[in-house]
Inverse folding.
């Protein structure tokens, strides 16, 4: 495929927006994967190439959270270790596209996540009430399924991570995003290796997108820490509404 300079510029700018969306909420791949398909990449190749940018974005976001004093690598690593095997299995199935019924079910799941984010009994200082051992075990078990979906489709996996981290582990949204970027970066690295072995990854496009996503990831992590729960919740729900509407429209 012949690519022009503006193709790379389009992908770079899309990456900035997607990186910010992914760290603050999720759904950034809803933007970048269609852009790559528009440029002529088949779906599975676009899906695999997109992982390069996601890994770079999350590495940048993890470093930004760490520099600002937000880290809990012990929990992040154990959650990631549960998600990675699921991601490998999901990536192995990722050469197949999902049907319209999958989109409908996903839309329902995302509506549920949005409702949970707006529950009136959500305290803003969730870490004052650490999760119980049973909740920690449940969160780790759920990460296997989240990892599978992330390896398979990736689009919207951030919303599922938020649902587990906020509502099972009882974390505030800043720490939710802190763990989310570590876990997503880990299982996407595993998924990228699987895709690279099975489809022709377009590294030039992936690295261009990675640069944009890294900038967006930095901006998202910085905003997450500086603006706190309120800003994250507004961005999250705005993206969720758009994502759910698109899923419903695509399923009709």
């Amino acid at each position: 495929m012949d690519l022009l300079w503006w193709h790379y510029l389009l992908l770079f700018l899309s990456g900035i927006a997607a990186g910010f969306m992914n760290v603050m909420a999720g759904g950034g791949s809803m933007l970048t994967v269609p852009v790559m398909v528009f440029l002529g990449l088949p779906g599975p190749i676009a899906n695999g190439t997109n992982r390069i940018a996601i890994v770079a974005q999350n590495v940048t976001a993890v470093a930004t959270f760490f520099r600002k004093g937000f880290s809990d690598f012990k929990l992040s690593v154990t959650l990631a270790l549960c998600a990675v095997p699921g991601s490998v299995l999901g990536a192995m199935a990722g050469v197949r596209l999902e049907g319209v019924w999958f989109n409908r079910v996903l839309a329902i799941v995302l509506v549920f996540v949005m409702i949970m984010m707006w529950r009136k009994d959500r305290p803003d200082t969730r870490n004052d009430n650490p999760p119980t051992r049973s909740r920690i075990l449940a969160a780790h078990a759920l990460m296997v399924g989240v990892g599978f979906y992330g390896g398979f489709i990736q689009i919207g996996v951030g919303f599922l991570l938020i649902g587990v981290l906020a509502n099972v582990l009882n974390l505030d949204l800043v720490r939710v995003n802190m763990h989310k970027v570590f876990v997503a970066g880990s299982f996407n690295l595993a998924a990228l290796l699987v895709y690279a072995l099975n489809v022709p990854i377009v590294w030039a496009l992936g690295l261009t997108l990675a640069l944009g996503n890294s900038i967006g990831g930095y901006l998202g992590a910085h905003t997450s820490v500086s603006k706190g729960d309120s800003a994250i919740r507004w961005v999250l729900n705005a993206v969720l509404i758009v994502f759910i509407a698109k899923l419903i429209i695509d399923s009709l």
Summary: DSSP finds nine helices and no strands in the chain. The two ends are 32 Å apart (CA to CA). The first helix runs from residue 5 to 24. Residues 53 and 152 are 16 Å apart (CA to CA).
